[in-house]
Amino acid sequence: MTPRIALVGVGSMGSLHARVTSQNERCELTRIVDPREEVGKGVADTYGAAWTPEIGDLSDVDAVVLASATETHHRLALEVLEQGKPLLVEKPVCADLAETEEVLALAGQRGLPVMCGLLERYNPAVMTALELITEPVYVSAVRHSPYAPRIRTGVAWDLLVHDVDLAIRCMGGAEPNGFSAGVGQFHPDSVPGAEDVVNTLMSFPSGAIASVSASRIGQRKIRTLSITELDRLIEVDLLTRNITIYHHVSQDAATPDGRGYRQQAIIEIPELVTAREPLATQLDRFLDLIAGRVDADAERASILPSHRAVAAVRAQSTSAR
């Protein structure tokens, strides 16, 4: 049976979900839910779906993609799960750790698949890099963006969570056991308490460390990930989806003219494991979850580490003020 999907929220991210879901032959975009009739009905008409202003009865669908504003996630996610429907919810699950835990606990109690839209997991360059990693000792990630007034959540939940999640995945899923953070709020239009810049240093049980920087007051978009191992550096540009691997070699060697050199850099550029759009790859995984081809318990468990880490960073920065 082809799963029938309801999409809740068709703002900036939701409109992308609408396009990708409508293009996927494995599912059917059945319903658009958005309180704004002009916007919601317009998207529904574009993709041949029905429109409703509220979730209401979900008996006409098999699963839900929740792409509404973060502050609505807790209430709407519970509403979906209480009707027994699998859920793909945009990141973060909720901008509060206790609320996230409540949502995931309800899904676990009911045996329902839940997936969080940590989209960088499905970036082809990230997927390739994760296959190449052996023993990372240091991870550095930078995610800077120009200011977006429509986003009311602070930068920790909006941006930092992506790279905290990537750092944890680079470390084989191990959770950080130590944090230090610098947090700043600077923009006059930001909601009080919604930070604009977060720089955090995380330590892991193995002794490895990760440095993650997130900012929403940058003047250009930056998305980089660097993974250092003892014998190589893996650099990932998340925007261009390129990977470069560097090996530093120190040695004495003679050249034909009799001169010597002491060091050289060997550069590798690996092929990507896929060229597929990350949002499409993410949807495929959600459909596999619905079909039972992916372990739903493991998927739910993979969501919490990044949310716990971001909550710890925010709590530490608040107590330090």
From TrEMBL:
Cross-referenced InterPro entries: Gfo/Idh/MocA-like_OxRdtase_N, Gfo/Idh/MocA_Oxidoreductases, GFO_IDH_MocA-like_dom, NAD(P)-bd_dom_sf
The Gfo/Idh/MocA-like oxidoreductase N-terminal domain, residue ranges: 4-117
PANTHER family in the cross-refs: BILIVERDIN REDUCTASE A (PTHR43377:SF1)
Domain of life, per lineage: Bacteria
Domain GFO/IDH/MocA-like oxidoreductase span(s) in chain numbering: 152-220
Lineage: Bacteria, Bacillati, Actinomycetota, Actinomycetes, Pseudonocardiales
Species assigned in the record: Saccharothrix tamanrassetensis
One of the record's GO molecular function terms: nucleotide binding
Protein name, entry field: Putative dehydrogenase
One of the Pfam families matching this protein, by short name: GFO_IDH_MocA
